[in-house]
Amino acid sequence: MPVQPRTGRLLVLATVFVCAACGLVYELELLALGSYLIGDSVTQASVVLSVMVFAMGVGSLLAKRLRTRPAFGFAAIEAGLALLGGFSAMALYASFAWLGESRPALVAFSFAIGVLIGAEIPLLMVLIQRIRRQDAGGAVADLFAADYVGALVGGLAFPFLLLPVLGQLTGAMLTGTVNAVVGGGLVLWLFRRDLSRRCRWLLLTVNAVVLAGLACATLLADDFERVARTAVYGGEVRVAVQTGVQELVLTGPSTGSPRSLDLYLDGRLRVSGYDEYRYHEALVHPAMTGPHARVLVLGGGDGLAAREVLRYPDVVSVTVVELDPGVVELARTDPMLSALNGRAYEDPRLGVVSEDAFGWLRGPAARARFDVIVSDLPDPGITPSTKLYSQEFYGLAARALNPGGRIAVHAGPLGTRPRTYWTVESTLRAAGLRTTPYSAGGRLSGFAAGPDRTLGAADAPPQDWGFVLARRDRVPELRVDRDTPALRAVSTRGLQDAARDAARTRLPGLPPSTLPHPRYS
Predict the structure, then answer these.
(1) Quick one: which pathway (predicted)?
(2) In 51, 127, 412, 460, which residue has its Cα 20 to 30 A from 71's Cα atom?
(3) The domain containing residue 371 runs over which residues?
(4) At 144, which CATH number?
(5) Is 275 labelled a binding residue?
């Protein structure tokens, strides 16, 4: 051995530390990308974690076959981990972009990476005992201590360093590079006498090929992203920005009619210039019947709900509470999106707060009461937004209403996800609000249709958007006033017909969704 036994043990433990950090980064990469590409982060996390933990057990059993050649086996496993983990993000994104489905790839990578991670510790146990024998309990304690500390570092590095600085693709490939260099370097230097000449050359060649592949992929990552993004969104991607909250993609020409614009948030079509007016008119104007001097918009950073509110000359102030300042900046500066929202952010009556809506409602700023609250939030089936459709959230919103104030809530599609819709309505009632459910038809583009990313949404048949109008003192009347600004898609008769149609689909007895017991899926 080229070093003292004490130094050799420290080098093995340092390798355990690095490999554990890399393994957890691969795991978090799969979790993040699975949630982004497929939706429903709880389901994707459960699938990835359960499959990976099971596979680790399989890997531990399979490692028994390599105990006679632990150095070669460990180096081969690390090369395989570097290859699979480094290319996992790119493979999942490619599967989604060109095949339209990434679930099989997610499960396959979770299993394969889990098997390789599970085989590491048994082989490292053999290697560390070859340096200097000690009792098995002490060796296991040292290995697991290094493993757990490395997992901590990897778990913190992913959200705070790799993801924001390098992105998912490059971050995964850099992690694979570190994995290959450290794992292969330990064996080829510290345990080189345990390898035949043929094995050394084989490992050198394999690691060189893996590193060369990762280096080339890193150089081509930007080009790959552009090509894959074109496959997903079409050929007119004008803006693609990863904010600290989500990915924003804006498609359509840079000049002409804003009706050709599409805005995607984390891959889900959130705004289509072709039919967004149907959604925003139906969401906003029924709530504006009555006093509406002070209006609060929760979400709606695209400025489109605010556009409808600001059409009323007697509105004194509009407060938009949007978590992602990147959406507001895009809505303010992009010429097509700002044209679509009527340059709402140039209106002096409009103010913006960049905070989480739940936290803001709990704070002192929400004590200034509002006549109207418009909840223009992502679909309740998208897990990060589930708390914004909880009984606790609606209780805070009700507290912020003036006497006689109204709250309008986007509750998801009534026709395709009735259980989710009626759970929202039940949750509003549990918060002490009286409700009037209704919907708006004619959703041709599929935006805000649900929690999952799906290709070809624009080819789907017309569906609907579901809404609930609520107030504290009595059941709100569903209508628009005569002095309401001219509308293209909403009328009192149409709203009342929609309310009757919605009432016929009611699912009675649904429990409300709460923070400790969310009911959406």
Answers:
(1) Amine and polyamine biosynthesis; spermidine biosynthesis; spermidine from putrescine: step 1/1
(2) 51
(3) 275-448+458-505
(4) 1.20.1250
(5) no
